[in-house]
Amino acid sequence: MLKQEELMVNDGWEGIEFCYEQGWTDGLPVIPPTKELLDGFHKQAGWDPEEILLIEPVRGRNVSAEKVAINAIMAGCLPSYAPVIEAVLLAMSDPLYSLHAPVTSTGGAASLIFINGPIRKELDINCGVNLFGPGWRANATIGRAIRLIYLNCLNAKPGILDKSTQGWPGKFSICFGELEEKSPWNPYHVDLGYDPTESTVTIFASESPHNILNHHSNGAEGILLTAADAMSATGSFSNGQSLVVLAPEHVNYIAKDGWTKQQVKEFLYMNAKRTIADLKQTGKIGGEVKDGDEHTWAHRGVSPEDIVVLVGGGDAGGHSSFFPSWSRGRGNVMVTKPIRKRGGTR
User: Which ranges of the chain does DSSP label H, i.e. alpha helix?
Assistant: First the structure.
């Protein structure tokens, strides 16, 4: 992104077109970042424009709060979203996330963001009906701001640094909250040791979701066998992590049977598997099929703890989702960071 400078335009449309001409958009129109909007965003966010909010160590890129604010404004974010954006960037800067690799890979991963804690309600983050789709400003614009930062600050433009073979629409924006109120279990951040009154953000380099469709089973085992089957698909099979978002209808049946979240994770791990023969025959792993390969199993992930289970979606419908991790192996892991409000944030 160019150094900040003022440009006089005749109207808002001319400003939008100027942003297109500079290559600052994700293909959709953006809000021109006027000085007035930028100054107001910094003030309400409590950011010093020169402070560094994102570090990408492989290419030595540091992204300042000023550049983050510009992209957040262009994405349509309110200043009240700043603490979430800041926490996402902190998570992305963590070496465990391996930011450079999924951004540049042919795999086409999106930086999936999910949010826990009270801030979901404060910012009206959708956790229910159509939670992966359109309709909520916070969901759409927080995720979009991160993508614009990739494009404009890390030069992750298609064909330049972003080498995605196909990609998926989550690369525009994929951000949602866990529907904690409908879960029979602790929310994800509480499992990690955070207090329920705290808010967190988790980032995950994710492939596109697989629908887990089961309208007829009214028991835990049938629903979870369906989920495990989706997780076993050879196209996305790896020893990486998994994100399973169970819809309330499915969760109600699972809870009625008395299953704990840990039992769900253990069951999915034990049943999300393929034989070594399968993986060799499909070319997922190298080598010729040998005696015993038909009876030797590989599991999705390396343990039940590699399966993260959330609750989310509308009350009606037997549709849950499985999000596979990026890469053929285990190139990156989920990272969770607390969301901290600064003094200026409202």
Answer: 12-22, 35-45, 65-75, 82-93, 100-104, 119-122, 137-153, 188-191, 220-231, 248-256, 261-271, 276-281
Angstrom distance (rounded) from CA 35 to CA 215: 52
How far CA 58 is from CA of 86, 216, 226, 328, 329, in Å, comes to: 20, 49, 40, 21, 20
CA dihedral 281, 284, 286, 288 (to 10 degrees): -10
Can you read off the two tokens belonging to residue 240?
């990486």
Going from the C-alpha of 12 to that of each of 8, 29, 71, the distances in angstroms are 11, 11, 17
- Residue 293's CB is within 10 A of a number of other CB atoms, namely 17
Strands 52-56 and 61-64: antiparallel
Structure tokens at 187: 């929310």
- CA 185 vs. chain centroid, Å, equals 21
Query: What global pTM score does this model have?
Result: 0.94
Three-point CA angle 269, 255, 185, nearest 5°: 75
Q: Is the per-residue pLDDT at 329 higher than 80?
A: no
Residue 111's φ and ψ, nearest 5 degrees, are -85, 90
pLDDT over 70 (residue 259): yes
Q: Does the structure show a pLDDT above 70 at 7?
A: no
pLDDT at 327: 75
**C-alpha–C-alpha distance, residues 83 and 111, integer Å:** 17
Give the residues across from 61 on adjacent strands: 56
pLDDT digits (tens, 9 = 90+) for 331-340: 789 999 999 9
Q: Which residues pair with 275 in a beta bridge?
A: 297
Give the torsion through C-alpha atoms of 338, 339, 340, 346, to 10 deg: -170
Output the DSSP codes for 72-87. Answer: HHHHT--GGGHHHHHH
How is 258-322 classified by DSSP, letter by letter?
A: T--HHHHHHHHHHHSEEEHHHHHHTTSS-S---TTGGG-EEESSSSGGGEEEEE-S-SS-SEEEE
What residues have CB less than 8 Å from 119, skipping those under 6 apart?
83, 84, 125, 199, 339
Average pLDDT of the segment spanning 262-269: 98
Structure tokens at 182: 């409908």
